[in-house]
Design brief:
Strand content: 25-35%
Number of helices: 10
Largest sheet: 7 strands, mixed
Helix content: 10-25%
Shape: globular
Number of strands: 21
Radius of gyration: 24 Å
Distance between the termini: 34 Å
């Protein structure tokens, strides 16, 4: 499959994102830069950039909690918060759901040093590149928070966010348009902006908010009734009752509607779980989709998560679900945990096969109820091809060993196993390791070894059960990599490192260590950053993926 064209090749009027001139003298200290663990540091980087834009306009200003202010949104920061300014002062306020060009009224909720956070109350003047969201839940749901911003503008904002973080937090400076100082590549768009998710998790609850009535700054009438949907933003116990989600397949939406109607009708027998009293039967509904490896026909797995195992209670629902030809698996995860989790302590197969399958880069992968698999299958094809190109595989690579860190079910490493000597995958979750081994066997791949272990708790013996890697691929979760793992990579001498990240803030922090190594160790930064490729895996959300290619300096 050919890699999709970058978004600037598409015909539209949105200009290239404004790339600010950023010096290495970041307002944040180097010690602070190395302590990034969440979006707060990314927001501080955005605040610092905005503050340096127009220093002459900024005057002393100290807003109080609860104060209502008129703001102008100038850009989007990491995780989709609007970077706004108070009129006539230049004071920076981070506001959720504010979009570039919008004038709005917001209420201050927190002050954090040089900036504040606020809740949007109402719009005075609409934002630039406004569009009408097709989803009727868009104003209340916390998932697609940028649906009312044109897709071209979303891409521009995401690319700019990545550039801000890599240049400022990573201390790589501004990426030039071309030449030796150019490292940022144009973002790859997603061909399908809707119906792209192959997995959605919905929650049952006893409290729900009617669509279009949720306003953050008020206390709406919380109705004690049945709900099946998504969590209200910022709340663990309130469920936004929905009947469809435009991110999942049409068949999955029909199943969601049928489950909703059935369970609501029988809510006296099938009680929804209450996260405050920890009582109730139904907890979550997870829908996963794949395709038959031989026919390509759609497969849907229905996972009903309950507080106890009581198959007779849900038997009538199962009988209704099996009438769908696409439903090939129904499982029941049972959890007694008070935590809000969709992963059960025990799992029971109620119908069909224990897993569904999906094809990715010519291989067939098994997807069980709780295993990880890239949520956007078609865009994963693009992602994996970008990763392979970043590995710079040649004929000589057939003699090289590849280390796949945070390998999950082994999809990335297995897709390149035929081009290297051996793939060694390392993963914490035992079920994922078991899936990776099954996936290797299913595809007759004999040169792949998968090891279970915690990469955040490395011992001195780490690396003893695999040879020195020539290529390292690392795909950590949002917190990024542990300092000990970074030191292992620096000492490994691998010729090429490919960093796949779902959090550009922690990615920038880790790249700083790998290339500049200012963490206090005796090791000099051993790698040179070649390129950063943003990829939009999840349209209408603030999330963006990055693939960073590094080569050994010496």
């Amino acid at each position: 499959m050919a890699v999709a064209a970058p978004w600037r090749a598409f015909p539209f009027s949105w200009p290239r994102p404004r790339m600010r001139e950023i010096s290495h003298s970041c307002a944040c200290s180097s010690a602070t830069l190395l302590q990034i663990e969440d979006s707060s540091e990314a927001n501080r980087a955005a605040v610092a950039a905005e503050s340096e834009e127009q220093p002459a306009k900024k005057v002393p200003f100290f807003p109080k909690r609860g104060q209502e202010l008129e703001l102008v949104c100038e850009s989007l920061a990491f995780k989709g918060q609007g970077v706004c300014k108070v009129l006539e002062t230049g004071y920076v306020v981070m506001c959720d759901r504010a979009l570039p060009g919008e004038r709005l009224i917001a209420r201050i909720t927190k002050r954090k040093g040089s900036y504040a956070e606020a809740l949007k109350l109402r719009t005075i003047v609409t934002h630039d590149n406004a569009v009408t969201p097709p989803c009727k839940y868009a104003e209340s749901c916390g998932g697609c928070r940028t649906q009312n911003l044109s897709y071209e503008a979303q891409l521009a904002a995401k690319e700019d966010q990545v550039h801000q973080l890599i240049s400022r937090v990573g201390r790589f400076g501004r990426s030039e348009e071309s030449g030796s100082g150019s490292y940022l590549k144009p973002i790859f768009p997603c061909a399908n902006q809707y119906h792209y998710r192959n997995k959605m998790e919905f929650s049952f609850g006893t409290r729900w908010l009617p669509p279009n009535e949720f306003v953050k700054n008020q206390s709406p009438d919380i109705k004690e009734d049945f709900a099946l949907g998504l969590h209200v933003p910022g709340s663990y116990d309130k469920i936004l009752d929905i009947r469809e989600c435009l991110l999942q397949h049409d068949v999955a939406n029909q199943i969601l509607l049928d489950v909703h109607t059935f369970c609501e009708t029988h809510r006296n027998d099938l009680s929804a779980y209450d996260t405050k009293t920890h009582s109730g039967f139904l907890r979550h509904l997870t829908l996963r989709s794949g395709h038959d490896e031989h026919t390509g026909k759609l497969q849907v797995m229905v996972n009903i998560v309950t507080s106890v195992h009581h198959p007779r209670m849900i038997k009538p629902l199962i009988e209704k679900l099996v009438t769908y030809s696409e439903v090939t698996s129904i499982v029941n995860n049972v959890t007694s945990s008070m935590a809000n989790t969709g992963v059960g302590e025990k799992q029971y197969l109620l119908y069909g096969a224990p897993a569904i399958t999906e094809r990715l880069r010519g291989l067939v992968f098994e997807i069980s109820a709780n295993s990880f698999f890239q949520t956007n299958t078609s865009q994963a094809e693009v992602l994996y091809e970008v990763v392979e190109k970043a590995c710079n595989l040649t004929e000589a690579s057939s003699e090289m060993n590849m280390l796949d860190l945070f390998c999950g079910t082994g999809t990335i490493g297995l897709s390149m196993a035929n081009k290297v000597n051996h793939v060694y995958g390392y993963e914490l979750v035992q079920e994922a390791v078991a899936n990776a081994r099954r996936n290797a066997n299913r595809n007759n791949i004999l040169n792949a070894t998968f090891i279970q272990g915690d990469l955040n708790k490395l011992t001195s013996g780490f690396g003893g059960n695999f040879p020195r890697p020539d290529i390292i691929i690392t795909d950590p979760n949002r917190p990024g990599m542990h300092p000990k793992l970074l030191q292992f990579i620096l000492k490994s001498g691998a010729a090429r490192v490919v960093y796949v990240s779902c959090n550009p803030a922690t990615c920038a922090r880790d790249l700083d260590v790998l290339c500049h190594s200012k963490d206090g160790s005796d090791l000099a930064g051993g790698y040179r950053l070649l390129s950063v490729q943003p990829i939009d895996m999840f349209p209408h959300t603030p999330h963006v993926e990055c693939v960073c290619a590094l080569e050994l300096s010496n």
